[in-house]
Design goal:
alpha+beta, 120 residues, 4 helices, 4 strands, 4-stranded mixed beta sheet
Length: 120
């Protein structure tokens, strides 16, 4: 059976994102590929702006998950993954998802939507 790798697409120009990816790289069990969005030239991927607005993970079978689902899936490749699973529980997710969305929108607006900070 072929190995089943998930691929997490992250913003390598974001200090917080880069720090989390360093931790994931150190702790992951070997089935998670980490891809900096800024180094990708694959035409089959979503456009760069879409990838930068929310965390994206492509599962081993080609399914896309985003936001908190991508975070939880990425961390599931580490021994600490169980700590993030409650973020997807009903009730908790309804509270955490808008917080994540607001944070992600603000991060994107501050870093890329200023007019001077063109993507690409």
């Amino acid at each position: 059976m072929a190995p089943r790798y998930d691929t997490l697409f992250y913003d390598g120009q974001c200090p917080l994102c880069a720090r989390e990816v360093r931790t994931l790289r150190r702790l992951q069990t070997g089935q998670l590929l980490l891809a900096d969005i800024h180094g990708q030239r694959n035409q089959t991927l979503p456009d760069r702006e879409t990838l930068l607005r929310r965390l994206h993970l492509m599962t081993w079978n080609g399914e896309w998950v985003t936001g908190l689902h991508a975070t939880v899936r990425a961390w599931s490749h580490t021994p600490l993954g169980f700590l993030l699973k409650p973020l997807l529980w009903p009730g908790v997710y309804q509270l955490a998802a808008p917080v994540y969305a607001r944070w992600a929108d603000r991060r994107y607006e501050r870093k890329y939507a200023c007019g001077e900070c063109k993507i690409g």
